Predict the 3D structure of the following.
Amino acid sequence: MLRNIFHSNTKKVLAAAIFASLLQGIVIAAPVFAETATTGETTVTQEPTQSKAKAAGMTAAQPDTADQKEIDHSAEFKPVQNEFLKEGEGIPGSEVPYQSERSLSSEEWKTIDSLEKDIRILRREREEFFKNRAKEKEEKEKAFTSAFKNRQEYSIVFNPDDYSTKTMDANGEPVTFRAYEHLVYVKKPYDPESQMLSIYIPEAYLKGGTVNGFTAETAPIFMPNGVGGYMPGQIEEPREESRHGGANAALYALSNGYVVVSPAIRGRNLKHENGYETGKAPALIVDYKAAVRFVRFNRKAGRIPAGDTEKIISSGTSAGGALSALLGATGNAKDYVPYLKEAGAAKERDDIFASMAYCPITNLENADMAYEWMFHNANEYYNAGPARRVPPAVNSTSPAGAVPDRPANAPAEAAKGTAMTPEQKEISAELKEKFTEYLNDLDLRDSLGNRLNLAPDGYGLFREYIESLYLEAAQNAIDTGEDVSKTPWLTVSDGTAVHMDFDKYVATVKRLKGVPAFDAFDMTSGENNEFGTYDIPNKHFTRYALEHSQLVTVPKEEEEKEIAEEKARQYNLASPVEKRQLRKANLEEQMEKDKLDLSQYMANGRIIRMMNPMRYIGNPDVQTAPHWRIRHGALDRDTALAVPAMLAVKLKNNDKAVDFKVAWGYGHAGDYDLPELFAWTDRICKIKDKADAILKEEQKKAKAKEQE
């Protein structure tokens, strides 16, 4: 067996194997649904497989990352099991000594024999430990399943006769529509109130009429979500007044001839009366997809009387914008199928035609890095109580006085800033540096094919691209007659916005969030709450925050890698006896580490991936929406502009049509430009209708020609 070790790649193999054994694995976290826990989980876990447990103690599971594949180096060390050998009787056939070992003394062979026996005993003990842990998890999952086995089942067959007729004023124009309200869209909901939708259809379509050039057959389907802060989203009913004045998006859409489908969606704080959490990730995207499937299922059968299911358009703001982007990016992705099946969603497609995302709080596992790249030079933050490396009891009190008119479910903003500490600045610098590495790995390109990268100091073409977005927003404001002359970070010459001072921008707009902005070290952020499980409220979702967590001690990856490399070097130079001693010591060390179940603190890597649209764009097995409209306020500091910018560029690089702009004068908000929004949706929908009509006519002619 050991002969395979001493080939030309000795150091690489050993370093990888020992590194794997040293790294603390991450156990699969309990999923939202019990059934899904045993369905297709691909994350690398702390528990070794049966084959790994038979390894010689040099390997263990690697940390769970969203797209890392498990590499099993244990084959290098697996002995051939001999059923005729009893405990302590000789050496397995695969461990017959090399030629170089045959000169060992009988005393050395006795020592080796004893060490091999100890290693086998330790392996069995480790196997038993993981069997017991797996049994505990299985019992918890059975308890969860049992708690919901008798939940009420619903029909997802739409009833076209159950409606009311309503008339509302949409910016001075009466709009009459039919309302089919509070329809449960999955057969087996965990929370029916949060898994139902309402459908609104212009009355004209039920009488054979047209609205805005659309008919009952061609009317686009507008699907807004009311999610904010990853909290439960309520049904967005048509309203005559909205936050920005005038009709809200649902009523505006109806006045434009759109069928409106508005779902309620589960969120992170949803808890069943039996005590289980039922709204954690990926619940909200599962629900949004289930609502799409409900509409397709019933429209295809002719039960829903109007709407073109090939022109479904999602829309949302903040976490709702992230959800809209996620729906648009992940059409028919297989990752979500077990969850949809478990909830009793219709067996239909869930891809959509277009996605509208306002200030999306997305790409969460990289959002902290992006935020520090953007706001690194800010000296104060304006939210209350950021997580720090020191215990919360030592922290200073939160600033008094809250800023009014913040978006629903958004972090509270203090009127007075809190100074960044030297430690926070250090953390900020580390995260900023990591963002450069992440951004460069994406290999994003501009329209000319130039790589939008960054240098180690944070400067580069990507920064210039971000600056150009702010300058474009300023120029649009100038062109519409707005006075921007008092903007301290902007230089205007002859009516043209020519330069922005990035540091002055940050100083003027100010950073809202502390360090880190999303994955808090004390796990108190809304995003930590989103990545919890049915029995654990909050979890980390980045390796960096886990390593600096106030709740658990985990070595840094860099440090563990250095230790692994040193141990690999020692092993390579060791004598046959020393090699066994090292293997035994390493196995004992790993068994001690095994006692810490990191699944209590770190979210499942697959779930993290399922919440990030960036992970799916460009996947040939996924139908990403062809049309996108993304907006980010020029004054927004709830997330960094870099986040939606990366999303927009990646979509463009994958041949999607993207309308991406920074909105001058707006902060963290959405639905402030409904006329422009629906002008965009009208255009892309009518272009599709025209193309479909041409194609249909050509097919008709071809068929007629065949019949001649």
